[in-house]
Fold:
Amino acid sequence: MPLERNQERNRGASTPTAAAKARVFLPWIGLLSVPVAAVAAMLAEGSAAAWMIGAGCAALAYCATAFCMPSMGGASEDDEDDERPAVAAKAAVGQGGSLAAAAAKDVLLRAIEVRSTERTAILDALADGVILVDLHGETRFANKAAGAMLGENATVAGTRDAIGALPPQVLRAVQAVVEAGGTERRRLEAELRDHGSTPVVIHVGVVRGHSESLAAIMVRDVRSEREADRMKSEFVAKASHELRTPLASLRAYAELLADGEVGDDAQRREFAGIILSETNRLGALVDRMLDIGRIESGMARATLESVDFGELGRQCVEEQQGEANRRMIALKLSRAERAAVAQADRPLMKQVILNLLSNALKYTPDGGEVSLEIDTDNLARAVVVSVKDNGLGIPEHALPRLFGKFYRVENHERIAKGTGLGLNLCRNIVEAMHGGQIGVDSKVGVGSRFWFAIPMDQSARDQTARKAA
Amino acid sequence: MNMQDFTSDRVRILVADDEAYILQVVALKLRNAGFEVLTAYDGEEALATVRSYGADLVVTDLQMPGLTGIALARAMASDPKLAGIPIMMLTARGHLLHEGEADSANIARVVQKPFSPRALLEEIEALLAERRRAA
Structure:
């Protein structure tokens, strides 16, 4: 362990007199307290990661350096961040007694040991790898995360294993920053030569001591950031596609009308109707994207009130009855005898039920059956709303992606138009805004049952949240 | 598939898109310009149509259920009877095809959605003229 080696080194460097010991130890005890306190504060605030990338680099590196370079530091001996060992040492010097000096030495060593353990624990708690190397790339210190990233050998002090496991440009950066000195820092994007070619961001900063300069290398695994970037790009590409499709219709039909390429009034009315329909589609798409964005960013809040789901279900069925009649679909409402009442946002609940009913009607052939069932689950203390149909059904492979953004089941696209965002919005409303659950059971050729459950009260809501966590 | 005017000697263009409105507007524009137009709602239908009836040009959407526009183009490129038919790709993906994707599947032109039917017609006429000169 580097720490043990350093403690040995510290002990070896101590002199027979308490005064000399005080001169050696006091400056760095005081100096170490500053960066470590900063790291601890940042960790407590949960912002250590961001801080490390910036100006904190040097402080952390200093902290690591202190383990192996006890004589380092430019502050004066007047620095007294931790006064207890210093007072003890000064008292010992004042008394001049050998017993007092020995006691002071013990106090100092214990203080150093405690501090060193604390600082190692802090550095080992970091998710980023922290490595301190000299100009030749020899390791002076490496934390646990560095070992996990580069292999356990990388943490062995006095070897070049850590630098050897890093991409070659890191050593060049180390040499450059050490030679340049001052506040020189380098940022590199690279891939580790491990099994997965892990993408990393590496920061190299200089740590200037009395006798030599060292480089602090911090390695951050950026796989999750890259994955987030990939998902963001995928969302933008899908959103772009979905927005461009109705726009393409709008532009094309408007141009034909403007160019007078229409046969008669009937065709002119048909084109105007298509423009109107595609404008509505575009508007609905933008509204849903904004709604989902607001919910996901935490900006949307549910306005809770006591909602009678039986009554709400009756209203929803009434609204969809016209479409059901037109398609000769039997639309039924089934309500539990006991009251199905929960604290919820009424307009949002209505939006979810209407969305599920509308989907069921879209994908059920003419003459089929759709039913809305309102029930309660006494065990889970939740209102359960189900929409059943005997329509096309959904292939098993599509079920896990069904509530994702812009996902449309193959071959369903040509049956009915949709934004591909409706179910995602329903999931956000039910789960993110109400602490409920949403799901689907389906079989191709038999039909589907979409359901959602809303906790009846706050304690049930908390229980659901705990289960979800 | 629409086989209107199928027996004529006019230049025959197959249009494939799963968006009915786009299919309708492109077909109308091309018919108004004097072309014979066949239509298909997806890649599989387009492939079956071009195999059965042939075409002088295929205008296809990129993203379609089942056989995509790229898969259709590749299937045509690997069929000696269809490999010479130029393909024009319509895409709403918001970016161009990946590098080499168009070349490997003999895609002559890529047109971004939303597009101008007027500009599309000009592109088609230019492409057909180019092919006639090369023949």
DSSP finds five helices and five strands in chain B.
